[in-house]
């Protein structure tokens, strides 16, 4: 990821954009696309089942419902859809349960604490990687192997997007620009949340 040495701004962010926005008020693996979504500071996507101060994903609620919700907004890059299409899988925005589908930004390469400015007002802070689950194979058999694997050193590689919390609320629409604000160093690699 390159940065503008005068401003510290990420030059990739100049072309980064929101492709689609999705939400669902009920538990479902996929989320229908919307014309817009509204982010609420400290909560997530207005009306989405996963919005809240504490965890909302069922498996996490079962373990401890008082844990802070670090998965308020889920983002996935469309480049992943293009990658898995090469292996014969058709995946569209919202299909993997993400709230924001992006283009032109290396989401998986961002460090913990990166702030993403989505559209004119909303700001989210990246908390970590989505941990792909077996529901992905229920959606498309064999897709889990495409989004969860190992690198040459045997480390687990998670490709199913990133999670974030909402710092500043606001409306987001397809076509909105994304600006990246990296945290002060040293940077920490994303882990699963």
TrEMBL record:
Domain MOSC, chain residue ranges per copy: 32-181
SUPFAM superfamilies noted in UniProt: PK beta-barrel domain-like
Source organism superkingdom: Bacteria
Secretion signal, residue range per the UniProt entry: none
InterPro entries: MoCF_Sase_C, MOSC_domain, Pyrv_Knase-like_insert_dom_sf
Gene3D superfamilies: PK beta-barrel domain-like
GO terms of molecular function: catalytic activity; molybdenum ion binding; pyridoxal phosphate binding
Pfam families listed in its UniProt record: MOSC
PANTHER family: METAL-SULFUR CLUSTER BIOSYNTHESIS PROTEINS YUAD-RELATED, MOSC DOMAIN-CONTAINING PROTEIN
Protein name as annotated: MOSC domain-containing protein
Natural source organism: Streptomyces laurentii
């Amino acid at each position: 990821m390159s940065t503008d040495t005068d401003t510290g701004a990420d030059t990739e962010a100049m072309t980064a954009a929101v492709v689609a926005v999705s939400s669902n008020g009920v538990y479902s693996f996929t989320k229908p696309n919307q014309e817009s979504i509204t982010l609420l500071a400290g909560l997530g996507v207005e009306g989405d089942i996963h919005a809240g101060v504490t965890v909302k994903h069922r498996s996490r609620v079962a373990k401890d419902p008082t844990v802070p919700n670090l998965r308020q907004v889920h983002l996935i890059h469309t480049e992943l859809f293009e990658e898995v299409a090469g292996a014969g899988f058709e995946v569209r925005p919202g299909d993997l349960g993400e709230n924001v589908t992006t283009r032109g930004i290396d989401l998986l390469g961002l460090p913990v604490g990166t702030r993403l400015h989505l559209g004119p007002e909303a700001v989210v802070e990246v908390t970590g990687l989505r941990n792909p689950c077996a529901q992905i194979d229920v959606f498309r058999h064999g897709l889990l192997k495409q989004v969860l694997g190992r690198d040459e050193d045997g480390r687990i590689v998670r490709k199913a997007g990133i999670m974030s919390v909402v710092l500043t609320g606001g409306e987001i629409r397809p076509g909105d620009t994304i600006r990246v604000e990296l945290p002060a160093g040293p940077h920490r690699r994303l882990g699963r949340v």
